[in-house]
Amino acid sequence: MSHPTPVVEMRGISIEFPGVKALQDVDFTLRPGEVHALMGENGAGKSTLIKALTGVYAIDSGSIVVDGAPHTFAGPAAAQAAGISTVYQEVNLCANLTVAENVMLGHEPRRLGAIDWRATRRAAAEHLARLDLDIDPASLLSSHSIAVQQLVAISRAMVVDAKVLILDEPTSSLDADEVRQLFAVMRSLRSRGVAILFVSHFLEQVYEISDRMTILRNGRLVGEYATAELPRLELVSKMIGTSLEVLEKLEEAPKRSVAARADTQPYLRAIGLGRRGAIEPFDLDVYAGEVVGLAGLLGSGRTELARLLTGADRADAGQVEVEGTTTRLRTPRTALGHKIAFSSEDRKGEGVIGDLTVRENIMLGLQAERGWARRISAKRADEVVTKYVEALGIRPADPDALLRNLSGGNQQKVLLARWLATAPRLLVLDEPTRGIDVGAKAEIQRLVAELAADGMAVVFISAELEEVLRLSHRIAVLRDRVKIAEVTGDEVELDQVVELIASGGRS
Amino acid sequence: MITHELEPAPSPAGGAQPSGAAGGTLTRVASALRLDRRYIPVIGTLVVLLGMFALGASRYENFLSGRVISNLLINNSYLVVLAVGMTFVIIAGGIDLSVGAVVALSGITAASLFQSGWPAVVVIPLVILIGSVLGLVVGVMVHVFEIQPFIATLAAMFLARGLAYVVSLSSIPITDETIVWLSSTRIPLGETWSLTPSGIIALLVVAIAFVVLHYTRFGRTVYAIGGGEQSAVLMGLPVARTKVLIYVISGTCAGIAGFLFTVFSRSGYSLTGVGMELDAIAAVVIGGTLLTGGSGFVLGSVLGVLVLGLIQTIITFEGTLSSWWTRIVIGALLLAFVVIQRLLLVRRRV
Amino acid sequence: MKDALTTFTRSRIFWPVVALVALLVANTLKTSSFLSVRVQDGHLFGALVDIARNSSPLLLVALGMTLVIATRGIDLSVGAVVAISGAVACSFIASSPDPASPVTVLTAVGIAVGLSLVLGVWNGFLVSVVGIQPIIATLVLMTAGRGIAMLITGGQITTVNSPPFKTIGSGFWLGLPVSVWIAGLVFVAVAVLTRRTALGMLLESVGINPSASRLAGVHARTLIWTAYALAATFAGIAGLMISSNVMAADANNAGLFIELDAILAVVIGGTSLAGGKFSLSGTLVGVLVIVTLTLTVTILGVPPSVTPLFKAVVVIAVCLLQSPVVRAKLAARRRPAVVAPVPAKVGA
C-alpha cells in the first residue's frame, strides 16, 4: 500500500483536565482515502482526541498539521471550514427541520437573496443520491430512523467538501442492514479520496471496514497497526491492557468461595428481564457476599443490564425477585426501598450534585429515604460523614467543601459514601473506577472486596477486564446486548473471557 | 422509504413545502392522512377559529358579515404585529416580556414629538427605531452577558415603561394630519369588507416575516436554534448574530405595533400596553408555536390573534356575558393547547 | 475577621446589600430624619417602618417564588392568586350579615388561603404530573386568574367595612404593623421549614441535578408540588394584606406585576433562575432593595411613576454584576488567591 501525504498529522498531543490526564503524548496520522479506526475502551481518550482535532478542546501541548500547514481550530465551525467534518454519535442535526434543510442549512442556493427551495431540494437530493439514500428531501428529519439521520448528517458533511470525515460511533444504534448501507457509503467516500476517522466498539465492523487502526489506552498511545495484520484477540488485549501498577497496589483480596449458596436464596434474581433496544432478556442471580462482574465492551449492554437491576430504567419483560419475593423495580426509589443502590457510570450527569457540599451529597440518599420532614440530626450526619470521609480517605477531608471542587476520584468516593450510608444489601457499581487516578482506583477496589467479605452483594462493571477478573467471584459476559455466558470462580482466565467477548463463544 | 408529498391547502408554510411533481389523487389522499405533524397545532387553531365563527353565526345575526371580520383584523392589527415579532423569539426558544412597554414608549414618544410639531416622516421611523434599539440592548444582554431572556426582557420592560413615564404621564392627543388620515381612512373592498392602512401594514409585516422565516438563511437559523442551540453551533451556523437579531426584530415589531396603536387610539399614553405581552404570547401559543422553541409559523400566530379577537367579539355580541369571561376563556384555551402539545410530544417520544 | 469580610464581598449577596445601603444613605443625605423612628400612640412610625410594611406582601410572594425557582421552576400566577384571594375574602365579608365579627373575618381568611392552596396544587399538578414547562403552566392561571377574580367580585371593586379585617393590613401589635409580624413569621417559618428539615437541601438537589436526585431516591414530584402549593398559599396571604390595606378587592390591579417584582427580588438576592442553591436572606435583601427604591423615588420628589426606570437601572446593574462574564472578569482582576471553580470539562 502506498503512503500518500497525510492529511492530518497530530504529534505529541497532551490534554489535561482537572485531576485527569486525558491524553498524554499521543500521535495520530490520517491519510487520504483510508478508513482509520480509533480504538480504545471508555476513558481511553478517543473522544478527547477527536475534540482536540476539531477545536472543541484546546491542546496543552503538541502540534496539529492539516494538509501540510499547522492548525489550531477555534471551534467546530473553523474545523469545518478547513474541511474536517464530524458526525457525532448523538446526531447533531435539527430534528424539527426537513431533511433537505438539514443537509443544506447555511449553504442553501439563493436567488435574488431568497432561498431557492427548488434548487435547495434538488441539491440536497443530489447529495443524498451520492450516498444512495433514497428519501424525500422534504420530509421531516425526525420522521426518519437514527440510521437515516446519521446518513443525512454525513451528506451534510459532504456538502462542504470534507477532506476528513470523522464518524464518532455512528453504528451504535444501527441494525445490520443499516450498517451495511453506511459501510457502502463509507467505501464510496474512501474511493473518492476522503479520509475517514471511524470510532466503533463493534470489533466485527472495525475489521470489515477499516484499513488501519490506532489504539489508545488510558490516554496513551498503544500503537498504530494495519488492520489485516492485527489478530482480533491481540487487539482486545491491547485495548484492555494489564495495568500492572494497579495490580501491585491491590493486595490479593481473599476470594471467599460462596460455597454454601446452593441451599441459600439469592438476594436478587432476575428472570427473563429485558428492555427492548437496550438489552435482550437475561437471567441473573446475585448472592449476598459475592461480587458479580459484568464483562463486555462498551455498548455490549452491561450498563443497560445494571440499570434494569436498579430501577434506573424500567424493564419491559421478565421479573425480579428480591429475597424470593417477586417485585417490580419501577424507580430508583423502589429499588432503594429494597436496599438496592446504583452508582451510575455518568458521574457528572447522574451522580454528583456539584453545588452541594460533600456532607449534603453523602447524606442525600439516606435523607431521601427518610423523606424531607425528618431531617437527620446534625450529630448523626457528622458521625456518618466523618466515618466515610475517614474510611474512604476523601480529600480534602472537609465536609463543607462543594463537591464540584473535588477531583474525580474523590467525587467518586463521595458517591460511594452516599450509597454505603444507605446500608444497601446489593450495590451495583457501574464503572466506579473510570477516569480516576491509580491510587484512588486501588482504594475503591479494596473497598469492594471488603464490602463483599462483609456480606454485601455487589455487581461490578468496569471497562478494565483485569479489574473485573480480580474482584469478581462470578462473571457474566455480555456481547451485542446479549448476556452470552457466565463464568465462575478460580477457573476464570483472562484469555477465556477475552475470547468470549471477541467472538461470542461461537467459535 | 415512503415518500409523501405535502400539500396542505392554505399551507401556513407552503413556501417551505411546495409541491414537487404533481401527485395523483391517491397521493393526495395519502398526504392528507400523513399530514406533516408540524402543521397539526396550526390546523387545530384553524379548526377552533372556524368553530368559533360557526358558533357566532348560529347564535347571532350579522355575525358572519364582512364588517365583523374586517374589524377583527383592523382592531387587532397592532397585536398581529406584536405576535409576529414574538413568534421569532419563541421559535428560537426565548421570550420577550418587554413588548407591551415598548408599545407604550413608542406611542407616547410619537404623541409628544407630534405635539412639538415634528413631521410624520421623521417621527414614524424614529419611534420604530426606538423599538429596534431596545431590542438590540436585550439581545446583547442575552447573548453577551448570558442573562436569561426572561430577566433581560423584564429589565427592558421596566426601562421602556420608565422612559415612557419620563416622556409624559398624561395622555397626549394627536392631531397630526398624517396620523388622522391613517386612522380615519377606510379602503372599501366590495360592499361590506374594508381595510385600513394599519391593517395593510400589519399584513405587510406578516408577509415580510413569512418571507424572512422561510426564505432566508437567517430565518432557517432561527428554527435551527430553537431545535437545538448546541446542534446549530456544531453545524457551523452563525448562532450569536442570529440570537441578537431576533430580539432586534421583536423590538422593531413592538415599535411598529406602538405606532399602529397610536394610530388606532389617535393618542399616546404611557399606561397603554400593560399586559399586552401576555396577549402576544398567548396568541403565539394558541397559534401552535411550541414555547420550547423550534416549531411554529407566523400565520399560526395570526390565527391565534384572530382567535383572541373573536373571543372578544363573541362576548360583545353575547351582551349578557361580562368582559372578564374573555380572560377566562383565553386561559382555558391556552391550557387546552398546552396540554394537547404535551400529549403530542409524549406520543412522539414513544 | 478579614476572611469573613472577603467571603462576604465575594458572595452573591454583596452587591444587593451595597445597593440597599447606598439607597438608605442617599435617603439620609436628602432627609436627615430618614432613619429616625418615632413612637406615637405606642406604635412605631418612620420611613424604616414604612419600608418594612410595604415589603410584607412582596416578601411573602418572593419567599414562595424562591422555593419554586430553586426547583428550576417559575410561578407567573402569583399576582392573579393575590387578586383572587383578596376578591374571595372581601366578597365573603361584604356579603356576610356581620362583617365586623372576628368569626366572619377568620372564615374569610380561611377560605381565601384555602382557595389559594388549591390553586397552588393545580399549578403543581400541571408542572410535576402533567409535565408542562413551569412558565407555561403558570401562564394559564396568570391569564385566567384575574378573570376568575372579576367573576368573584362581579366586576366591581368590592369594598368592605370590617375592623378585624383592617387589622391584617393596617393594624399594629406590640408597636409594629401586623403585616410585618405576619411576613416575619412566615419568613421564619419558611427558614425553619427549609433549613431545619431537609426540605431545602432536597429542593436544591432537585434543582441542581434532577437525574442524580432521582437515582438517589429523591421524590421530586412531591417536592415540586409542595413548592408550588406554598408559593400560592403565601400569595394568598399577601392578597389578604393588600386588600385589607385598602379595604377593597380590586380584581384588576391588586398584585399587578407582583410576580415580576418577586422574581426580580429573588434574582437580585442571588438565587439563579436556573435553579439550585437558594438564599432566603438574599430574597429578603432583594425585596428590601425594590421597596426602598420605590420609596426613595417618592422621597426624592421624583414622580412615583418613574420608579420603573430606576428599577430597570438597578436590575440591569445587578444582573450585569452577577452575569458569568462580568464575574469572571472581576474575579480575574482581583488577586487569584481563591481557586475559581473550574468549569468542568467533559472528559473522554
Automatic annotation (TrEMBL), chain A:
Keywords: ATP-binding, Cell membrane, Membrane, Nucleotide-binding, Repeat, Translocase, Transport. SMART domains: AAA. GO terms for cellular component: plasma membrane. It is a peripheral membrane protein. Residues 8-243, 262-505 form the ABC transporter domain. CDD domains: ABC_Carb_Monos_I, ABC_Carb_Monos_II. Gene3D superfamilies: P-loop containing nucleotide triphosphate hydrolases (3.40.50.300). This is Sugar ABC transporter ATP-binding protein. The lineage of its organism: Bacteria, Bacillati, Actinomycetota, Actinomycetes, Micrococcales.
TrEMBL record, chain B:
The lineage of its organism: Bacteria, Bacillati, Actinomycetota, Actinomycetes, Micrococcales. This is ABC transporter permease. One of its GO terms (molecular function) is transmembrane transporter activity. Its main location: membrane. The chain crosses the membrane at residues 39-57, 78-105, 117-138, 150-172, 192-213, 244-264, 270-291, 298-318, 324-345. It is found in: Cell membrane. InterPro entries: ABC_transp_permease. Residues 1-22 are annotated as: Disordered. Keywords: Cell membrane, Membrane, Transmembrane, Transmembrane helix. It is a multi-pass membrane protein.
From TrEMBL, chain C:
The keyword Hydrolase does not apply. It is a multi-pass membrane protein. The chain crosses the membrane at residues 44-69, 76-94, 100-122, 134-152, 172-193, 223-242, 254-275, 282-302, 308-326. Keywords: Cell membrane, Membrane, Transmembrane, Transmembrane helix. It is found in: Cell membrane. The keyword Membrane applies. It comes from the Bacteria. Pfam families: BPD_transp_2 (PF02653). This is Sugar ABC transporter permease. One of its GO terms (molecular function) is transmembrane transporter activity. InterPro entries: ABC_transp_permease. GO terms for cellular component: plasma membrane.
